[in-house]
Design brief:
The protein is of the alpha/beta class. The protein folds into 2 domains: 188 residues, Rossmann fold; 238 residues, Rossmann fold (3-Layer(aba) Sandwich). Helix content is 39%, strand content 14%. The strands form 2 sheets. The chain has an 8-stranded mixed β-sheet with strand order 3-2-1-4-5-6-7-8, with helices on both faces. The chain has a 5-stranded parallel β-sheet with strand order 10-9-11-12-13. Strand 1, helix 1 and strand 2 form a beta-alpha-beta unit. The N and C termini lie far apart (66 Å).
Length: 431
C-alpha cells in the first residue's frame, strides 16, 4: 500500500468523521478498524454509523481514492489514534485499545512523524503510558516523533460542522510536538487552535464533560426534590435561568454516551479523595433510571398492561446507545416483567438485543402507557391526534425528556413539571 498522508486508527463516531474530513480537504487517508464489516462498507463508500452529512462525504472521498480502509495500519506522515476508551468494573480507564493502537503503528513510524491521540484519556496518560511505548523501540519522543493529545470536542449530529468550527486544544509532549500537531489540524479547522501541554489537554477535555455532568446532576436532584415536595421543576429552572449568571441544564432519565457518563471517572481515579462533588454527581445521574422506573410503577399497576418505550439512544437524533440510560431503564423494566414494546427511528435492530417495532404506529398501538426516553425530532413533532388514534383510552404518557406537546383530555401526561401529582393521587392510573 502506498504511503499515506494520514492514518486514522479507529473508525467509530469520531475516527470516521475525522478521516473523512481530512480526505475531503485533499489528504490521502488510510482508515483502520478491527471490524472487517466496517472496513468493507467504507471501501464501498458506505458507513456503519449515523451522522448528519457523513454518508455523502464518505461516498465522495472514497470515489476519488482519498480515503481507503484496512484492518492494519501502514506508513504515513501523521497517525491519529481515535479508538474507544471504555472503563473497567471499578470505573477506571481501560487503556487497552489505546495501547494496542499505539503499538500497532510503531513499526510504521519514521523519524519526523506526528502522532496524535484523540481518544479520551486520564491525565498523565501521554507521559506515563504512551511515551514509554515509543522509547522502548528507540524513538525519542519530541525529537524523532512528535506526540500530542488533541481531544475531540464535537456534538453528535453536528460533528462535521464542529470539526471545522470548534476551537481545538492541542497538547504536545513538548512545544515542538504541539506546534507540529497543530499544523495538521490547520488543514481544515477554522476555529482557534490552542497549543498547550499534554496533561493540560487531557484534563481540559475531562473537565468540560464533568462540568456538564455536574450541572445535569443538579437538575436531576432538583427533579427529585420537586417530585417529593410538590414543585414544578421545569418552571423553577426556567425562572432561575433568567438570572444573568445562571444556566441550569434540564433533568432527564440519566446521562449517557461515551463522554459525560465516562469522563468524570477518569478524574476520580487519579484523585478519589479530592473528587467528592464529581463522585456524587455521578451517583445522582446513575440513580435516575431507577427513579424513572419508580414513576412507571406509580402509573402501571398491571404488569400485563402494554408499556411502549420510545427512544433508546442516549440523546436525540442519533443512533448511539453507548451508556444510554434508556437501555438501563429497559433492563430494569424487563426485570419487573412488564409487557414492553420498543421503538427508536434511529437505532437499528442489530445494535440492540430487544425486539424493535418496525413503525411508531405498531409500537404505540393499543398502548396503556408510553414512556419517552429520547428526544428525537420524530417524537417532538408527534401530533396529538395520531397518539390519540392509536393509544387506548385514558392512556398515560411519562415524558422524561419533556419534549412532547400534549394537552388532550384523553391522555394523562406527566413530565418533570408535574410528577408530584402522582404522589398526591396516591394510586396507580392503569390498573
Amino acid at each position: 500500500m502506498e504511503n499515506k498522508d494520514i492514518c486514522v486508527m479507529g473508525l467509530g463516531y469520531i475516527g470516521l468523521p475525522t478521516a473523512a474530513m481530512f480526505a475531503k480537504n485533499g489528504h490521502k487517508v488510510l482508515g483502520v478498524d478491527v471490524k472487517q464489516e466496517a472496513v468493507d462498507l467504507l471501501n464501498k463508500g458506505e458507513i456503519h454509523i449515523e451522522e448528519v452529512g457523513l454518508g455523502e462525504m464518505v461516498k465522495e472521498v472514497v470515489s476519488i481514492d482519498n480515503l481507503v480502509a484496512a484492518t492494519k495500519p501502514s506508513f504515513a506522515e501523521t497517525f491519529i489514534i481515535a479508538v474507544p476508551t471504555p472503563f473497567n468494573d471499578d470505573y477506571s480507564a481501560n487503556l487497552d485499545y489505546v495501547v494496542s493502537a499505539t503499538k500497532s503503528i510503531i513499526p510504521y513510524t519514521k523519524k519526523g512523524n506526528v502522532v496524535i491521540v484523540e481518544s479520551t484519556i486520564p491525565p498523565r496518560t501521554i507521559d506515563d503510558v504512551i511515551v514509554p511505548l515509543f522509547e522502548e523501540k528507540g524513538l525519542e519522543v519530541g525529537k524523532d516523533v512528535y506526540l500530542a493529545h488533541c481531544p475531540e470536542r464535537v456534538l453528535p449530529g453536528r460533528i462535521l460542522t464542529e470539526l471545522v468550527e470548534n476551537t481545538r486544544i492541542v497538547g504536545g509532549y513538548n512545544e515542538i510536538s504541539a506546534s507540529k500537531a497543530a499544523d495538521v489540524y490547520r488543514t481544515f479547522v477554522t476555529g482557534d487552535i490552542l497549543e498547550t501541554t499534554a496533561i493540560s489537554a487531557e484534563m481540559s477535555k475531562l473537565l468540560e464533560n464533568t462540568y456538564r455532568d455536574v450541572n445535569i446532576a443538579l437538575a436531576n436532584e432538583l427533579a427529585k426534590v420537586s417530585e417529593k415536595i410538590g414543585v414544578n421543576a421545569l418552571e423553577v429552572i426556567e425562572l432561575a435561568n433568567h438570572h444573568p449568571r445562571v444556566n441550569l441544564h434540564q433533568p432527564g432519565p440519566g446521562v449517557g454516551g461515551h463522554c459525560l457518563a465516562v469522563d468524570p471517572y477518569f478524574i476520580i481515579e487519579k484523585a478519589p479523595e479530592e473528587t467528592k462533588l464529581i463522585s456524587n454527581a455521578r451517583k445522582i445521574n446513575n440513580s435516575m433510571p431507577s427513579f424513572v422506573v419508580e414513576q412507571v410503577e406509580k402509573l402501571l399497576g398491571d404488569r400485563e398492561a402494554k408499556l411502549t418505550v420510545l427512544g433508546l439512544s442516549y440523546k436525540g437524533n442519533i443512533d448511539d446507545v453507548r451508556e444510554s440510560p434508556a437501555m438501563e431503564i429497559v433492563n430494569l423494566l424487563q426485570e419487573k416483567k412488564y409487557n414492553l414494546s420498543f421503538y427508536d427511528p434511529h437505532v437499528k435492530q442489530a445494535q440492540v438485543k430487544i425486539p424493535l417495532a418496525g413503525t411508531l404506529e405498531d409500537a404505540i398501538s393499543e398502548a396503556d402507557c408510553v414512556l419517552v426516553l429520547t428526544d428525537h425530532d420524530e417524537f417532538k413533532s408527534l401530533k396529538e391526534e395520531k397518539l390519540k388514534s392509536h393509544l387506548k383510552k385514558n392512556c398515560v404518557v411519562l415524558d422524561t425528556r419533556n419534549c412532547l406537546n400534549i394537552s388532550v383530555s384523553d391522555i394523562k401526561y406527566y413530565n418533570y413539571s408535574n410528577l408530584y401529582q402522582l404522589n398526591r393521587e396516591n394510586k396507580v392510573l392503569v390498573p
